[in-house]
Amino acid sequence: MSPTFRALHVRNFRVYAAGAIVSNIGTWMQRVAQDWLVLQLTSSGTALGITTGLQFLPALLLSPVAGVVADRFPKRTVLRCTQVAMAIPAAILGVLAITGAVEVWHVYLLAFVFGVGTAFDAPARQSFVVEMVGPEDLSNAVGLNSASFNSARMVGPALAGLLIAAGGSGVEATGWVILANAVSYLAVIASLQKLDPARLAPAPVMGSRKGAVRDGVRYVRSRPDLVLVLTIVFAVGTFGLNFQMTSALMATDVFEKGAGEYGILGSIMAIGSLAGALLAARRERPRLRFVVGAAIAFGVVEIVAGLMPGYLSYALVLPVLGLCALTMITAANATIQITTEPVMRGRVAALYLMIFMGGTPLGSPFIGWVGETFGARWTLVGGGALSLVGVALALLWYAHRRQIDRQELHAIATRLRSQHGRRAHLPPAAAGRGGLRLPQRLREHRALGPRHDRDDAPVG
C-alpha cells in the first residue's frame, strides 16, 4: 500500500473513516447553510460572527472537562453519545427553517447547543485514532483524517450551495440542507457499531480523582514545544481561520455573488486543504518547523487573498491558502498526539481543541465587526497580519525559554558533578525540543526546587 494511505490497512480505521466522511460532508453542508440562513435573516456580518462565536464558545469553556471525560470513559461510548448530541440541535434548526418559524435567536441558541456536543466529541475523536491504528501509523492516520475532512469540504459546500440555489436561496432551502446533516450522524454511529473491539488498543483509563484538569495543564506547561504549537494554533485560529465567514462576506459584499458561487469558494479552497493533508500524511513524524513555516506562509497568503481584485483571482488564491492552513493544522495535531503520554492524551487533545476551536468565539465577532466597519477585505488582511504577529511572539518566547532551559541544565549538571564527584552525562536529547526530555536523575533533581538544594538532598 502507498505510504500516503498506509493506515487504511487497519480494518477498524477503514470502517470508521467511511462513516466519518459521510458525516463530514453533512457538517460542511450545514456550515454553509447556517451562514446563509443568518445572512438571509439579518444581512449582518456581525450577526454571522456572533453565530460562529457561539457555536465554538463551548469548546473554550468545556474542553478541559471534555478531555477528562475522554480519558475517564471508553472513547467509543463517548463518541456514540456525542453524535446524538450534535444531531438533535441540527434536526431542530432544520425543522424550524423549513416551517418558516426560525428567528435569529433560534440560530444563536442551537449553534451554542451544537457546540456543546462538538466540545465533547472532538477530544474523544482525536485521541480515539491512536487506539485504532497504534502509534506507528498515527501521523499517517491524522493526515488521512484531515484529508477525509477536506474531501468532504470539497463536496459539502458546493452541494449545499447548489441545493440552496435550487430551492430558491431562501430560508426554507437552508432548512433541508441542515436536516440532511442531522441524518448524516447515523453513518458515524453505524461505523462505531461495526468496529472490532478486539483489535482496538485502548489507552489506560484515568481513575476518578480531583485535579485531573490541572494535571493536564501542568503537563503542557512543562513542554515548551507543546506551548509553542498551542500558541501558534491560537493566534492563527483566532484571527485567520474564519474562512466560512470571510468567504461569505467576500462573496456577497465584495463580489456580489449568490449562494452557488459562495459554496464553490469553499470547495475550491478544499482542493488545497486536501493537498496539504495528503502531504502531511506522507511524513513519518511531524516537525515543529512544518508548523511554524506553514503558519507564516498562511498569514502572508491570507493578506494576498484579501487584496485580490475579482472573484476569479480570489478563487485562485484559495487553494494555496488551504494548503498552508491544513499543513499547519495537521502537523500541529500530529505533534500533540504523537509526543504526548498516552494517559494524558485526551486532556492534552482537549487543551489543543480548546485553543484551536475556542479561539473562534474570541476572533469571529471581532473579525465580523471589522468586515462590517472597514469592509470585507479587511477581514482577510487584518486576520493574516494578526496571525503573523502571533507567530512572531510565540517564536520569541520559545527562543527565550530554550535559552533558560540550557542554562538550567548546565547548572544542574554542574551541581551533580560537585555532589557526586563525577561527570554528569547530558545526552543531546536532554536539551532537545526546548529541554523537554531530561535524564531521570536531572528530572528528579529539578523537581526538588531551590528550597531543597542541599548537600543531603536525595538526587538519584
Q: What is the total number of structural domains?
A: 1
Look at the helices and sheets and give the structural class.
mainly alpha
State the helicity in percent bands: over 70%
CATH level-four homologous superfamily name:
MFS general substrate transporter like domains
Number of strands: 0
Q: In this structure, how is the largest beta sheet organized?
A: none
CATH architecture: Up-down Bundle
Unreliable stretches (pLDDT < 50, length at least 5) are 428-460
Strand percentage, roughly?
under 5%
Looking at this protein, list some descriptive labels.
460 residues; mainly alpha; Growth Hormone, Chain: A; disordered C terminus; 16 helices
Description:
- This protein starts with 10 loop residues before the first helix and ends in a 12-residue tail after the last helix.
- It has a single domain (3-199, 211-399), classed as Up-down Bundle (Growth Hormone, Chain: A).
- It has helices at residues 11-42, 45-72, 75-99, 104-133, 138-166, 171-194, 212-221, 224-239, 243-254, 259-282, 288-306, 311-339, 345-374, 377-420, 432-435, 440-448.
- The relative contact order is 0.15.
- The chain is 79% helix and 0% strand.
- The chain is built from 16 helices and no strands.
- Helix 2 (45-72) runs parallel beside helix 4.
- Residues 428-460 have low confidence and may be disordered.
- It has 460 residues and is mainly alpha-helical.
